[in-house]
Amino acid sequence: MAAPETTQTLTLTSAAAALRAGETTSVALTTAAIEQAEALDEALGVYLARFDDYALERAATADAELAAGRDRGPLHGIPIGVKDILAMAEGPTTAQSLVLDPTWGEGKDAIVVERLKAAGAVITGKLTTMEFACAVPDPEKPFPLPRNPWDTDTWPGGSSSGSGAGVAAGMFLAAVGTDTGGSIRIPAIFCGVSGLMPTFGRVPNAGCAPLGYSLDHIGPLARSARDCGAFLAAIAGADPRDPYAVERPVPGGLTELPAVEGDAPLAGVRVGVTRQMMADGDDPAVAPTFDAAVDALRGLGAEVFEVVIPHYDLTITAMMVTCMSEALAYHMPDLRSRPGDFFRALREMQPLGAAFSGADYVQAQRVRRVSQRALAEVFAGVDLIATPAASVVSPTYEQVLDGASLSVLDGVHTAYWDAVGNPALVVPMGFNDGGLPLSLQLAARPFEEDLLVRAGDAFQHATDWHLRVPPLAAEAAVAA
Amino acid sequence: MSANETPPTTPDTGALLDAMMTAAGLAPSESERAALITMYEQFRPGVEALYALPEARYESPALVFQAAPPLAVWGA
Prior knowledge:
By secondary structure, chain A is of the alpha/beta class. Helix content of chain A is about 35%, strand content about 10%. The two termini of chain A are about 15 Å apart. By secondary structure, chain B is mostly helical. Chain B is flat and about 45 Å long.
C-alpha cells in the first residue's frame, strides 16, 4: 500500500478527487492541515488568526453533505486560508495594521468569502499580509514576520505572504491572495507554488481593504495551475455591490479542464517570449531555467515567437503613480492623524502620492490605455506571453529590512500586468543554486484565464517543480 | 533673482517635497523625509516621461465615469 498522502503532497484537485473516491475525508484533510500549522506556524508566521474549531465543524458538514450526494464542486471540503485583508464574519480583519478600524467588516463576509463558503470550502483562518497589502514587514509592529518555508532566513514575498508560505508548507491546499503590483504572484514565485492573478474585474473586490482601486485583483495561490483554475471558478463573477466587477461568463474550462492527453497538448497555441526585463545582476540560474521552461512549452506543441512587451517601463511608472495616488486617498486621514501607527515602509512611501498631481494621475491612466492598445496588437499575433516571473529569488530578511523598502522587488516582473489588467499566471520552473524557487510567468488576453490554466496545467504535466516540498515542511508532514 | 535670470533647472527637491507634504497636511519624520526625497528623485523623471509618450497625446484615460452605476453597498 502506498504511503498516505499529506497536505504537503496533495493538490487541491487531487484532494477533491480523493474525497469523492472515499480515499480521505474533509475532516482528515482539515485535521492534517491544522497539525501542520501546529508544527510550523511558529517558525513561518503564516496565520494571524486560526479557526480550528470552526474549520473542523465545516469539514464535518462537508463530509456529511458529500455522503448525502450534495456536491458543491471542487472546493467542497478543502482546507483553504484567507488573506487578512478580506472580511470574514468569524474573526476580525486587521489588514496586518494597527490603523484599520476594527469595526470595519465586523461580522461580515467579503463577497469572495461568501462565495468560498457557498462552495463548501473549509476556511482554516486569516493569513499574514504586508500592511494593507503593501511593501515589506516591520519588526517593530506587533505582527508575525512571515518566513519562507524554503529558507526561513528569507522573506516569502508579499503581500500575500501567509498565502504563499502556507500553501508551500501544506498548512492548507489553497489560499486567497490579492495582487496590485504582484502580491499574488510574488509570494507564489518565492515559495514555489502557483498563483493566478485574474483579469481586472473578473472577481469582485467588495469586502477587501483596498490598496489601489483600479489595480486590485483577488485570486488564488495553490500548488498547481489546475487548482488555481478550480478556485477562480468559485470566486469569479459580477456582483452589484462591486462597481469594478465585470459581467462576463466564467469559462467552463476552469472547472472542467480535461486531463492532459497526447504529445502536443498545446498544439496551435502561440507563445510570445520576451527576455526584455532581464539584466546583468539577475540570478544566474534564471536565464537557463527560463530557456528550459520555454523548451518545455515548445515540446508540448506550442509555437514560440519572440515578442516585445510595449511601453514596459513607462507602464510600470504609470502603475506606481496610480497605486500611490489611490492608496493615499484611502490613507490620508490616518497618515495625518496617526502616522506612527503605520509600518515604517508605508510611512516612507505612501506620502509620495501627495507629490503627484491630479494631472500626473490622469496622464498615468492615458498611458495605461496606450499600453492596452499596443498590447492588444501583440496579442493579435500570439495567444500567451511568457517571461521569467522574477530575476531574483526570495531575499533575506537582512536585505528586506535594510531600509530601501522596495529595492528587493526590483527584479520582480509582475507590475506591468496589473497596470494593463490582463490575467497572469506564475508556475514554478526550477531552483537556483541556493535551492530557492524560480518561476515562469504566462500572461493572456483579458478574460482568457482558461487558456492560462490549460497552458500551466500542460506545463505541470511535463514538469514536477510545483510538487517539490520544502524540506522543513516535509519533515513535519502529517498524513491526511 | 532678476527678471532676466533663468530659474534653476534642478529645484531643491527637499524644499519642493516639504511644500507638497505641508500642503497635504503630512509631517514625515527626518528619516521618512529622506526616504521620500530619494524615491521622488527616482520617480520624477519617469513621471515626466509619461507626458512625452506621443501615442498618449490624444488618448483618453483609462477612467470611466458611470452615470448609473450599480449602487448596492457591500456590508450595508
